[in-house]
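Demo today. Your pick:
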Amino acid sequence: MLTQKDLFAKALLVEKPWFVHDINFDQTGGKLEIWIDFERGSSFYYEDKELGIKGHFKAYDTTEKTWRHLNFFQYQCYLHAWIPRVDLGNGKIRQVQAPWEGHAPGFTLLFEALILELVKVMPVHNVCQLLNVYDNKLWKMIKAYTNKARAEEDYSGVTVIGLDETSVRKNHVYVSLFVDIEEKRTIFVTEGKDHTVIQAFVSDLVAHGGQPDNIEQVSCDMSPAFIKGVEANLPNASVVFDRFHVSKVINEAVDKVRKAEVEKNPILKGSKYIFLKNRENLTVYQKQRLDGIRLSGLNLKTMKALNIREAFQQIYQAPTSEMFDKLLRKWYFWATHSRITPIKEAAYTIQRHWEGIVNWFDYKISNGILEGFNSIFQAAKAKARGYRRYDTIKAIIYLLTGKLDFSKINPHYVTHSK
């Protein structure tokens, strides 16, 4: 028959030479404490890759350590053990790692696996309150896991990437995200949004087995810094300007026209989102208002600008690349002869980025996945009342959108299908 100690040993996955030595349950204090020991004379495996030493070694001495474990029902559980230090035979004394020991100080692997699941759906501060642990301790664990999991990532198959920046706090502070579009995962996050972020990406790509010459397409906005960085560092990549960002240029032009005209035409008052939204996304009331403005008989530049924008959107329905280019040229002539300054300026912007816009038809890639990831991060930031440190920001982005395989470094973590 199993004894109480045997039962806890099985539940804790404690195996020889380790065994449960003692158990103390403090119901009043809300704590279960378990002491683990090892059989005297046992040998322990240790490997030092830097020194090229590995093998089984006898204990030289021991050091007491404590770890937070999964709760025992509603009670906090702690494991205590005397962990051996071994003599490597070259004058070096090293401490072995307990089988249950996590990657962050003071946590077991099982407890860390639980934390990883919780922080994906809850703000870190709330998880800390739930588990009664300090914020900085959880952040150290999250950073340790994202760093170690990224070290195991292989980017040799990456050929198509998306690039975009996201705001991390006020005063125009940004990080740039690089996404493997085909695998739908964030593979690199770095500070800033100038051309040097591409250099940083290339260095990281190579460190993970990737090759800059293998990058075939880069989807991004029309940032001159991004374009410069891609041309200088990714020689075989075709720049593809994301449809959303191109349309945004024209949307902003339409809004400028509306703002300039609303003072003289009160009928446009309160119509901002009617002209910013696509027709199919308008509410019934907004459609009625737009029809009223259209039928008013007023020769409004805003309506003419809206027609030009809608005509541009229709170009993306072209059946062939040749037709796409032909329709874009016709649109460009119309826009530049519209006598509407913001629309003409938008058309000139399109002309300067012509090749990247036409490339969209051939590759049909977009930054939609990046927009989604940005929304996930911004929602997490709002729930957590903001993240202030870059290393914290990077860790949470990798955690939420990197599809990192934590099972490679924690056997208790269940990898979800990608």
